[in-house]
Amino acid sequence: xxxxxxxxxxxxxxxxxxxxxxxxxxxxxxxxxxxxxxxxxxxxxxxxxxxxxxxxxxxxxxxxxxxxxxxxxxxxxxxxxxxxxxxxxxxxxxxxxxxxxxxxxxxxxxxxxxxxxxxxxxxxxxxxxxxxxxxxxxxxxxxxxxxxxxxxxxxxxxxxxxxxxxxxxxxxxxxxxxxxxxxxxxxxxxxxxxxxxxxxxxxxxxxxxxxxxxxxxxxxxxxxxxxxxxxxxxxxxxxxxxxxxxxxxxxxxxxxxxxxxxxxxxxxxxxxxxxxxxxxxxxxxxxxxxxxxxxxxxxxxxxxxxxxxxxxxxxxxxxxxxxxxxxxxxxxxxxxxxxxxxxxxxxxxxxxxxxxxxxxxxxxxxxxxxxxxxxxxxxxxxxxxxxxxxxxxxxxxxxxxxxxxxxxxxxxxxxxxxxxxxxxxxxxxxxxxxxxxxxxxxxxxxxxxxx
Length: 451
Prior knowledge:
- There is one protein chain.
- This protein has helices at 10-18, 26-36, 51-65, 84-97, 115-123, 132-140, 157-162, 166-175, 191-200, 231-241, 254-266, 280-292, 302-305, 325-332, 353-363; strands spanning 41-44, 77-80, 104-108, 127-130, 151-154, 181-186, 205-208, 219-225, 247-250, 271-274, 297-300, 315-318, 342-348, 368-369, 424-426.
- The chain is of the alpha/beta class and 451 residues long.
- It has 2 domains: 3-212 and 400-426, Rossmann fold (3-Layer(aba) Sandwich); 219-392, P-loop containing nucleotide triphosphate hydrolases (Rossmann fold, 3-Layer(aba) Sandwich).
- The strands form 2 sheets. It has an 8-stranded mixed sheet with strand order 7-1-6-5-2-4-3-15, sandwiched between helices. Strands 10-11-9-12-13-8-14 form a 7-stranded parallel sheet, sandwiched between helices.
- β12, α14 (325-332) and β13 (342-348) form a beta-alpha-beta unit.
- α3 packs across α4 (84-97).
């Protein structure tokens, strides 16, 4: 379906055209009319489906229809995201698509000074994109007034629940109007998501553009059995021997990410690590260098990679399989964006065979196994237990948990950590208004997808 058939305003269509898009993706074609009609929405969509534009465009139009000219600016639309990277990406989408509209927007997350943002919020904004913890810091310090919120978006709600944000979400719900439009986007429709929907949404419409927990059809998947101590050697062999130029590699732990990036560098392969212990500036630089081609390999933990959108990313490698099968789907969904083919490689040692079986059970199909000459598995090596937690990063230092709230809640206690937020700007194209504003990727060729 063409964007011009969705009932969007002239200003929004002009912005969409400037971004190079003509055809709407399935989630956009289904969600936009429902949001424009004022319906609450439960939407099942994985990353790479164009979901960001699927809510950004109609939210901007609904604010445009009820533009409060001449009044003091209060936030009227609020988007909650689980991570800093995703918040920056969504904020850039707001700026790009709202560039011909008179709205001002702010993005709020941890990692930078709070004072500049407080000043900008006090001057007034229309749209706020935030991670939950930092937003609550502003509420407590009375630098933001959420009493005029008309539209609430919960983006990647499943991941927010995984990261322990349910208490923060409920606290935010207590200070925004009960009469509002609520949009919930999630990669999966778990029992927890259904419960959240029943609690916060009113008679929502429901759309789901991809079968729950299934991998993107365009991703070719392969498993290379290999002994654990030879994984790095095999990875370097594949990258160098086959000329891979842009590779996103997943590890379970932050320490593992650092170690692997260092080892690849010694092999002559430029690499950088990105995880929750890295400063926001270091993470932003690593991602920018990777997108620009200055860094060949980006080694990431699951949470750090959440919200990363990279145009035409050809290769995703599971250096270590995730402990939770759903995270495998999220990982390989980083490739095969916007109609492009992608390649997902998993290096699997004897310790991970059970994890592999769980992933295949979730997918409903076995993944092709290829035994590479020279990397035969030693049958005398016995499996050892994998002790690391889920995804190697959902503990106290998980990124994206803003303000003084550092990551998942353990035993109901909040672990305190210093952090803060970022920039505000008029709705116009450019960087995301802060040092962490990662450019939103576009796909080249064919019908390009917004999002």
